């Protein structure tokens, strides 16, 4: 018996693939596990890249022309602003059908103040944002404290705000707006520095954004490891950071080779960073997730769910007002028909970006990604001449696929 044991222990180790294969298999398995665990989070980002690649080939390179990229930002800025607020509403377990009508009302009131009463545009902007906050607060009060479902309250708000817009504008389009307000929606950052082939200030901002993205990702990963939370494998994390940095760099170069970064893009960046930090790190952000994810447990934990719901709708009202001002300034006129179906675009962007019908799931970045998916689809289909009828069909299928993926993912996870 001792002889076989000695023979087994002294046998030479496997050569070649016999040594490397287990380690390689473990790395591959870890990567696959990481992809599966985070497919819901990064699936739409990957889909956005594929959609961009598809239309870039289909349009013969027109999609990523610098001028078209700039127009893509300008055309979708107000939807992206709405999507940020809508994502927070959906995370809290509610819905808001009134944002398109509130956009029109704010634009109409702003036009009356600036065009007919000649009020200075900064003062009119502040009053318009306050109007949006009041409208959102009223809806939040009925939802949080009276107990009326958000679907009913915001449906009533949609009808109410649209009717008030008709009253204020008397069924007519009103404009033009002051030049300073127009520059917020259509303007670009000023030129600075020596004469080059690129917009210098945009390049500097792009490099700063890349540094911020890398720092944020590394810090988040370090914190996850400190608290023994699940994190991406090193290889997948490096791939993620590289892809994000490359995407920001390409976008920066495209914008810098035209007129530079649009002013509204800076507004979007501030909203993205600010609300992203609030939802990730602030107490109110964690409470929003708690209320949407498990309301009874949140109440038992001491979360003031009514105040959270009220704050979410107040915030949505302010963002809808901001989007309304941007939309009106972009077209240099306020119209009673402004914002029609914009609430559906914002809701679709949130769900495509990873929100869950049951609440408690989603990110602000996901809302931006979902909005960009819709924006690229619209822009790309326009460039290749797809009719508006088929555009609606395709967007509907994309939304259905995104929500279907969410349902499948939750079933697979046993939720």
Automatic annotation (TrEMBL):
The chain crosses the membrane at residues 42-60, 72-90, 97-115, 121-144, 151-169, 198-215, 236-255, 261-279, 308-329, 349-377. Residues 1-22 are annotated as: Disordered. Coiled coil: none annotated. It is a multi-pass membrane protein. Its main location: membrane. It is found in: Cell membrane. InterPro entries: ABC_transp_permease (IPR001851). The keyword Transmembrane helix applies. Residues 1-10 have a biased composition (Low complexity). Part of the binding-protein-dependent transport system for D-xylose. Probably responsible for the translocation of the substrate across the membrane. This is Xylose transport system permease protein XylH. It comes from Streptomyces sindenensis.
